[in-house]
Design a protein that fits this description.
The chain is α+β, with helices and mostly antiparallel strands. Helix content is 52%, strand content 15%. The protein has eleven helices and six strands. The protein has a six-stranded antiparallel beta sheet with strand order 1-6-2-5-4-3, with helices on both faces. A hairpin with a 3-residue loop joins β4 and β5. The longest helix is centred in the middle third of the chain and has 21 residues. The chain is globular and about 55 Å long.
Length: 266
């Protein structure tokens, strides 16, 4: 299963992509639209969406941080969540429950129990933080999990037509926004940031993987060591351990405040 995603300056453009994906035959539970908004906007949106009285498999109602759930729209579901550091967002599509849950919003046990493995398999856990940053900037994100090259090619073409920014480009913008502060912090250790930035950044990003963030260090040390070993294999002969480890710790610190603000599940 392949992930195809794009970042959009306007919600309208992102919605057109979702509509075109449905017309191309891509299942609704494999496509999600994430978009930010104020609480007032969310209230109005919830009022305008027809309720689906027949709960479909995998569409359980959300609890905890979710303000609404189990709402039917174009064959999917509309979830409204509060993501720490981002604020209120709407997630159109069943896949949205997995994404907002990985991003730190509390998605209730009923959603988790009803989520089918086939729906979330292939979810790009190492990209969730990029989606968050885009939402924080007022942009919308479309994420799709596709099972064949034809769907992937069709979706990329639609995204390109609607002016999508790639996740890779969004990731670069995210780092540019952090780079000055991280350079200042790292330079205080007497290290050369210009030489070590690549490996420091690898560690920083590894700490933001949705699977391990918000956990105690003793719970993720094994994951950090595995990521470090992967980096060493990709860059043989490079002494990168110190820069990677320092970056990993800064990445954990970067996200910890949001973790502390996350509402706990009821």
């Amino acid at each position: 299963m392949e992930t195809v995603s794009g970042v959009f300056k306007t919600r309208d453009a992102a919605e057109r992509v979702v509509q075109d994906a449905a017309q191309a035959g891509i299942p609704a539970d494999k496509v999600t639209l994430l978009t930010p908004g104020s609480l007032n906007e969310v209230d109005r949106e919830m009022e305008s969406v027809p309720v689906d009285t027949t709960e479909q498999p995998g569409m359980g109602k959300a609890i905890g941080a979710l303000l609404g759930g189990g709402v039917g729209i174009t064959g999917g579901s509309l979830l409204v969540a509060l993501i720490p550091g981002v604020g209120p967002i709407t997630a159109l599509g069943l896949l949205g429950a997995a994404i907002v849950g990985a991003a730190g919003a509390t998605v209730g046990a009923r959603v988790g129990d009803k989520m089918e493995k086939s729906t979330t398999e292939g979810l790009p856990e190492d990209e969730i933080y990029v989606y968050e940053d885009a939402l924080r900037q007022g942009r919308s994100v479309v994420v799709a999990l596709v099972v064949n090259d034809e769907w992937a090619a069709a979706l990329r073409e639609v995204m390109k037509r609607e002016g999508a920014e790639s996740v890779d480009a969004a990731r670069e913008q995210w780092w540019i926004g952090l780079r000055s502060a991280e350079e200042s912090h790292y330079s205080k250790t007497g290290k050369n940031f210009a030489e070590d930035e690549k490996y420091y950044r690898l560690g920083f990003q590894a700490a933001l993987n949705a699977r391990t963030r918000c956990m105690e260090f003793d719970q993720v040390s094994g994951e950090m060591n595995a990521a470090l070993e992967d980096a060493k294999r990709e860059h043989p002969g490079v002494d990168l351990e110190d820069a990677f480890t320092r970056g990993y710790q800064r990445g954990r610190d970067y996200y910890q405040q949001r973790c502390d603000e996350t509402p706990k599940a009821a």
